[in-house]
Specification:
The chain is an alpha/beta fold. It has one domain: Nucleotidyltransferase, domain 5. It has 8 helices and 5 strands. Strands 3-2-1-4-5 form a 5-stranded mixed β-sheet, with helices on both faces. The radius of gyration is 18 Å and the shape is globular.
Length: 235
C-alpha cells in the first residue's frame, strides 16, 4: 500500500511538478488500508506492531503554519459552513475564518473548505506584504490539512471525483500553482477536531463572533487538549 502511494507521488512530481510529502504519503496509505479492512472485514490478528500511531493533531515545524479546514453540511439543506483555524509551531492560534456557502453534497462542502482555506491564505499573504517584506512573507510555509481523504486524493490527481467538484478542484490547483509554499495534505479526523467544531458551530449559529480572541469553553478545551498532546508527543 505504501509503495503504491510512493509511486503515485513520484508520478505527481514528474508529470505535475508537485513535490511529495512523506507524512502525507504515509497517512494516505494508512487511511486507505484502514478503509480496505473495514469494507472487506479482514480478520487479521491484532498485535502491538499492527496498531496505528496515535491519531492526534501535530504542530508544524518552526517557520511553518498549519491551517486545518473542515466543512459542515446536512443533506437537504442548500447552505453549509466551512471553517479554518491557523496555528503555529507552538500550537498558538494565529488566525482563522468561517464562511457560509452553498453545497449539494458532503464531498462538495469538504472541497469548498479546502478552496476557502487556500483563498484565505492567499489573501492573507497579500495583505501582509503591505507591512512586511515580500521575501519574509513568501518564505512562510503553509500546510492546509483536510480530513477528507477523497478530496485530497482528487486534488492530487490520485482519485476520481464527482463532476460537481471539478471546478472547485481546478480553482484550488490554480492557487497552488501560484505559490511554492502552500501545500494541501490529509489528516485523520481525530486530528481535525478544532476545525470540525468551528464549522458545525457556525452552521448551527452557535459560534460567537469573537471565537478566536475568546474561544468558547468547548473549543478552548479542544485547543488545550491538542496542545498538551502535541507537546507530550514532541517533548
Amino acid at each position: 500500500m505504501v509503495l503504491w502511494f510512493i509511486w503515485k507521488a513520484r508520478n505527481g512530481t514528474i508529470f505535475r511538478a508537485k513535490p511529495p510529502d512523506p507524512n502525507t504519503i504515509v497517512d494516505l496509505a494508512q487511511a486507505n488500508l484502514q478503509n480496505f479492512r473495514r469494507w472487506h472485514n479482514t480478520n487479521e490478528a491484532k498485535n502491538p506492531t499492527d496498531l496505528y500511531l496515535p491519531r492526534r493533531w501535530r504542530p508544524p515545524d518552526r517557520g511553518t503554519l498549519k491551517l486545518n479546514v473542515d466543512g459542515s453540511w446536512v443533506p437537504g439543506e442548500p447552505v453549509g459552513s466551512v471553517a479554518g483555524i491557523l496555528r503555529n509551531h507552538a500550537g498558538q492560534v494565529v488566525d482563522g475564518f468561517i464562511s457560509d456557502t452553498r453545497a449539494s453534497s458532503a464531498m462538495q462542502i469538504e472541497t469548498l473548505a479546502i478552496l476557502k482555506g487556500l483563498e484565505f491564505m492567499h489573501l492573507r499573504k497579500l495583505s501582509h506584504m503591505e507591512g512586511a517584506g515580500t521575501e519574509l512573507v513568501e518564505a512562510e510555509k503553509v500546510l492546509c490539512e483536510s480530513d477528507c481523504l477523497t478530496a485530497v486524493q482528487s486534488l492530487m490527481g490520485w482519485a476520481k471525483h464527482p463532476w460537481n467538484v471539478q471546478t472547485i478542484l481546478s480553482q484550488c490547483n490554480k492557487i497552488l500553482a501560484q505559490s511554492s509554499v502552500m501545500q494541501v495534505v490529509y489528516c485523520p479526523r481525530e486530528a481535525n477536531s478544532a476545525a470540525n467544531w468551528i464549522a458545525k458551530g457556525n452552521r448551527t449559529k452557535a459560534l460567537p463572533q469573537n471565537w478566536m480572541s475568546n474561544p468558547p469553553p468547548i473549543l478552548s478545551e479542544i485547543l488545550c487538549s491538542e496542545f498538551y498532546l502535541s507537546s507530550s508527543c514532541t517533548s
